[in-house]
Amino acid sequence: MNVLVVTADDPQARALWARFYKRLLGDLVFRHASSVPEALAQMRAELPDVVVSARETGGVGALEVLQRVRGETKLREVPLILLDEALLGRLSPSRLEAILAADAHPADVLEAAFTLLITNGRFREAARAPHAPSDAGHPSRGCALARRHYAPRGREVKVSGTLEVMSLFDLVLSLTQKRNSGRLYLLLAGVEALLVFQQGRFVHAEYEQETGETALLHIFLEAERHPEAEFFFEPSPPLPQEGMTLHAPVQELLLKVAVALDHRRNVAAPGVQT
């Protein structure tokens, strides 16, 4: 997704970047313009998928941003999210526009972006995000951070294979010992899972709607049940602090996982004393 945020408020821009990046990672192109002339120049140079405009940027209000964008033929069809609740009574948004509060949570801005893109048929991958219709007509069960079919499509994949060849424990230890940074994707019985590494540390795990240690445990549990699962690892930029859901050392996390898995095995095995 190519996103252009128009705001002179750097903390607001950083908060939006962190939320969009947490969801999309390498599938995100995030641009920031701190003035309206700069924003228009960026839009003319490369059309964004969606524009987010603050209530006021350099003395120019969100409504004027809308008018300037719609006044240019090339930019008329660009979806716009206007962060100014005062416009709710003054403007009837078209299918290409959404109005939110000036202090809207970045998660709400992200969902508004997906809604605009899906409504206008602009972004097929957006339709695979959580709460959006999937191809089968029901919510997607995949990983929220970076949707894709399991084909890297030209990405720099460093490791790939199935868990029949290398267990998830061995794979994780190999990646951490080499101090790798990147994203490990797994396809577990048709459901995507994601582990994010930063210089050999776990920093994020996601499985279905779970994140953090709960997701990490379920990923290892499902990996044990499905040794045929496919995986691939690709390098990626650092995850922002706001996106990190795992903070304990790798060995501590793996010990927790091992103890939990051993407990589940013992509970599942009749006649075994624990």
From TrEMBL:
Coiled coil: none
Domain of life: Bacteria
Domain PatA-like N-terminal: 160-264
Cross-referenced InterPro entries: CheY-like_superfamily, PatA-like_N
Protein name: PatA-like N-terminal domain-containing protein
Organism placement in taxonomy: Bacteria, Thermotogati, Deinococcota, Deinococci, Trueperales
